[in-house]
Amino acid sequence: MHEASVALALVDVATEALHEHGGARVTALTVRVGAWSSVVPEALMAAFPACAAGTPLQGARLTVVRVPGVGDCPAHGPVELDLTRGLRCPSCGAAVPALVQGDELELDELELGDPELGELALGRQGRPEPDPAGPERTALPDSETPGQEDV
């Protein structure tokens, strides 16, 4: 299960960002996982708590956003690809030369916690972003947020 090594890498990257921004701990992180990335989101979510144990990420909420594979069909433009069909347009069967999206494996967002300062959300660019839901933000259940899972 290579997802454990992916989870360890996420812990390393998040810990580095935590130190750069002076947070005490990471309370939540969001990861974008492409359908063609060869990472199984459920396995990543299962491995994460053990990999985060004893680190500033222990107890952090992991949210996985699944990114569908999209290719650029010469006849139809951008089309969502099916893993079982490979790099072929689902409409006409033409070969799709490359993925436009779907092979991502990105740490998209961190929420840093500091007992004195409260919560700070960092987006992809590492800049603070306002958190409209406040420090007690709760992810919606899967049925209300398609493509997103929490652990």
Radius of gyration over all CA atoms, rounded: 17 Å
- N-to-C span: 18 Å
> What is the level-2 CATH architecture name?
2-Layer Sandwich
* The CATH C-level class name: Alpha Beta
Helix run count: 2
Briefly note the structural class of the backbone. alpha+beta
Beta-strand residue fraction: 25-35%
Specify the overall morphology. Answer: elongated
What oligomeric arrangement do these chains adopt? single chain
Taken in chain order, the helices and strands follow as: HEHEEEEEEEE
Can you count the beta strands? 9
Region (Disordered): 117-151
Binding site for Ni(2+): 2
Binding site for Zn(2+): 73, 76, 89, 92
Pfam family, one: HypA
Please give a handful of descriptors for the protein shown.
hypothetical protein PF0899 fold, alpha+beta, elongated, three-stranded antiparallel sheet, metal-binding, 2 helices, 9 strands, HypA/HybF, Hydgase_Ni_incorp_HypA/HybF_CS, Hydrogenase maturation factor HypA, nickel, 151 residues
Write structural notes for this entry:
This protein has a six-stranded mixed beta sheet. Strands 4-3-5 form a three-stranded antiparallel beta sheet, with no helix packed on it. By secondary structure, the chain is α+β, with helices and mostly antiparallel strands. The radius of gyration is 17 Å and the shape is elongated. About 13% of the residues have low confidence. Helices cover 21% and strands 32% of the residues. The protein has a single domain, classed as hypothetical protein PF0899 fold, CATH 3.30.2320.
